[in-house]
Amino acid sequence: MLAGYVSADNVDEAKWLYERMPERNLISWNSMISGYLRCGEVEKARSLFDSMPQRDTVSWSVLISGYAQRDRFADALALFQNMQLEGIQPDETILVSVISACTHLSALDQGAWIHAYIRKKQMKVNVILGTTLIDMYMKFGSVPNAMEVFRAMEEKGVSTWNALILGLAMNGFVKESLATFSEMKECSIVPNEITFLAVLGACRHMGLVEEGRRHFDAMSRKHGIEPTIKHYGCMVDLLGRAGKLTEAEELIANMPVPPDVSTWGALLGACKKHGDNVMGERVGRKLVDLQPEHDGFHVLLSNIYASKGSWDNVHEIRGMMRQHGVIKTPGCSMIEVKGTIHEFLAGDKTHPQSEDIEKMLDDMAKKLKMEGYAPDTREVLLDIDEEDKETTLFRHSEKIAIAFGLLTIDAPTPIRIMKNLRICNDCHMAAKLISRAYDREIVVRDRHRFHHFKQGSCSCLDYW
Hints:
Layout: H1 2-7, H2 11-19, H3 26-38, H4 42-50, H5 57-69, H6 73-85, H7 92-104, H8 108-120, H9 127-139, H10 143-152, H11 158-170, H12 174-186, H13 193-206, H14 209-223, H15 229-241, H16 245-253, H17 261-274, H18 277-290, H19 295-307, H20 311-323, E1 332-337, E2 340-345, H21 354-370, H22 386-393, H23 397-408, E3 415-419, H24 425-437, E4 442-445, E5 450-454, E6 457-458
Parallel strand pairs: 3-4
Antiparallel strand pairs: 1-2, 1-3, 4-5, 5-6
Helix pairs in contact: 2-3, 3-4, 3-5, 4-5, 5-6, 5-7, 6-7, 7-8, 7-9, 9-10, 9-11, 10-11, 11-12, 11-13, 12-13, 13-14, 13-15, 14-15, 15-16, 15-17, 16-17, 17-18, 17-19, 18-19, 19-20, 21-23
Organism: Linum tenue
Family: Belongs to the PPR family. PCMP-H subfamily.
Keywords: Repeat
């Protein structure tokens, strides 16, 4: 009865029954914890867990998974560490949740430790656990580790191949990504909708328009998969990035499904990239009307006006943002050092080592100047003088994170940075030159993809 109420998400009836049970065993305790979690009552679930006279693996699994599903990743990791201290061996379900938590928290060291634990205990890596490990390593830019997991898996599902195809593309290995798709078909693995999103994404990352068209057409013609709004969005982005803005807009107009804001947003971003201010203004106005609470669309439209010096229009858009209570998402870069995540905002001086970071930034500026670096002040879309623009540029969050990485991470370990927004042109150029000046590998994951900087070049080949 208790399990039935929980399955029906009727937590009040489940609680009523649970409190009147003359005897409670582990199954009833675990069921009630699961019921609270299903209904979002996480604190009640934790309180019940803490009051249990004894726990089994399922008890830990239910709560750790619940934390992960509710995006409480730090709590999931902390509970896993408590579980380790009590000597409880985790099962595959727990490990999947904890690895996912490491991925979301940008905690590569902890994720790699869990992988080492799996190998030490000689645990069987099934499809779900293996795919989660591949996804984690790919999202940290650790492509060799992801490939190692893939090759060692005895059984691979379509989700495993999808994770590899998508991960390779995201890290700039587009040729290898498309070759993996061909290998997948040769192994008689039937691709699904997600596979084609990954393949179209690979084409998008390198501007392979004709190949993208071929795969898009093959979806329905060869594989009987009707493209969804996401597939059309990929094609619009592919065409837009390649500068085929008119064709991209025509595709939106002729889509069999209504375009969503993400599809229009891809076209707006392409207009900004290629300097088509006329189309950009038209599309931007449409998006601001469609989703007035979205900060990114306001900012892109404001940037288009600023790039042509239309400061009255810039002030108008900023006024609309204030009117609707829209706040621009600040740029934030994260870097993991010795198991601790450090976060930096643009112009950040709050870090305990900020004095050393400032000295490193000065050293970086000197070496960049010797490398021929000239700040791209077009990225600073403010009505201020050039000197102030240069100062603003050099305090972007990713540059501060790189400086901290140079101070705290010894070579040859790569400096890995996670950025919540798209990396700007100036930071991209600076990172390339810093990688050469300091002979360091720098890996930056921005909102869209990975950038592997090494000896003055980037894996994206300056196409992003």
